[in-house]
Amino acid sequence: LPHPISSRLDYGGPSRELFYLLSRELFHPYYGLFEYSAPDQYTVQISPHSHLVQQEMQWMELAGRVLGLALLHRCLIDTFFTRTFYKMLLEQPVTVLDLQEFDPEFYRSMMWIRENPVDPSLGMTFVVTEEENGQVVEKELLPNGAELEVADQNKEEFISLMVKWRVERGIQRQSRALLRGLHQIIDRDFLRVFTVDQVELVLSGSREIDLEDWRKNTEYRVINIDRYFALPA
């Protein structure tokens, strides 16, 4: 139970600490709901293997509610997500350019197709292969995709469908559960006012520390800042 005095003297400090500590645990890849993105151990994304976690959907809904409350109360969390994750929160379409940090190898492959003529001898069709229940299966990107060859005239559609497949692969159910939790707290119409960069900044803060900005926007009392601190020009 909250202490009667501390609750009156909150000033947002305990609330901020709650979101900081809760997010550090909830979104940590160690617990299996999320994973580090391909190129680093700095940003995270939903793990396609999160089905191994007991009560996975309930945890994902909780994650959505935590993000919604953090946005609502303007409290930073201790997590940075991939750009594709922020777009998922805002229900915005993902483009091939968004995959540069999400999956650099896949991004380079799609950009090569975009920038070079399609070789008919390769026999590329609107089909992908993926693992399902331990077996490799083919999946059509659209109806009768196995009979539709990729050509210069339709390769942009192919790239768009491939990007959608890559982003949603193995995480459709988890994403829907997370969005359900998010929309229990914040209406989706309200979220439409954000850009991807804005929602990242509000949720996670800036990835870079600007010392000059700190100096300009910090209130100093009793001390002489020029006497005790020396910041590079």
Automatic annotation (TrEMBL):
Any GO molecular function: ubiquitin protein ligase activity
Domain HECT, chain residue ranges per copy: 9-221
Alphabetical GO biological process terms: protein ubiquitination; regulation of dendrite morphogenesis; ubiquitin-dependent protein catabolic process
Organism annotation: Ancylostoma caninum (Dog hookworm)
Protein name: HECT-type E3 ubiquitin transferase
PROSITE patterns listed in its UniProt record: HECT
PANTHER family: HECT DOMAIN UBIQUITIN-PROTEIN LIGASE, HECT-TYPE E3 UBIQUITIN TRANSFERASE
Functional pathway: Protein modification; protein ubiquitination
